[in-house]
Amino acid sequence: MSAIRRSRTAGVANLVAKHGCAAVHVASETGEGERTRFREARLTSVIVGVTGASGRLGRLVIDALSRTRVDDRTRFGDFERPQTLNEALQGVDRLLVISALGTGDMVGAHRAAFEAAARTGVRRIVFTSMQNPVRDNPFPPAAIYLHSEADLTAVGVPSTILRNALYADRRADLARCYARDGRWTTNLGDGGHAFVTRADCAAAAAAALCDDGHEGRRYDVTGPVLVTADDYVALVRERTGADIERDDVDDDAYERDRAAFTVAPANAGTFELFTGTGRAIREGHLCVLGDGVHALTGHEPRPLQDLL
Prior knowledge:
2 domains; seven-stranded mixed β-sheet; disordered N terminus; Rossmann fold; alpha/beta; 308 residues
């Protein structure tokens, strides 16, 4: 599902790789005696599409759909070339638009996907957004998602919005770095956040896409508990055995430390929180505990400690 068609320019190749459209046919077969998450019997001959199918979240969504005995195939589209989206989305009934993090114009990329879906007759759009996308939220992408949710409403296609929490997977990766260094520098203050696993986000997205009754709904897709800095340090110490020191700093000092952390070769492949993200958690903008995972999938979300 993550095949990449090479383009003549690196920029377009990266965009195609990250946002290729995978059209998936959902079969009507379902097991007996067990509640399935996607109610496949209702979806005979329905085609669902997933943008970003070669990304981490997209691959997990495709895996979740594939476990329900679907036939799948990959199509390619470029958010900066709308004509390619028209072809990629032909025949798609329901579309999952995974947010286009890393593109130069995220608002434009999302709008292009929404408008292409409307042009090609998509009957439902599911969009992965973020918690509390309001104007005064200092979380860096908040304004982007505020505009994109408005654009989604404007196209007039029935939709479902999944406001995902920050990934617990990243906090688990970073925990290993802090344990190695014996130190964690943070600007979270006393704020808390309900970190959620990518796998739970994928399961929720697949269910929202394939199940009925979610049109017009917004779900907060979060982990099971709010995790504070105190909680996180305790978890890292318990799970790694490292006696890490927590260094609480202001935003300016944190940004300097973050810049140094990012370029250190030992931290390659990890991603430290933006300064604005820490501020948003500290000020309560991302202090949201939702029931989206359970409401959509029927199971409880996994806690952060399961990944450590």
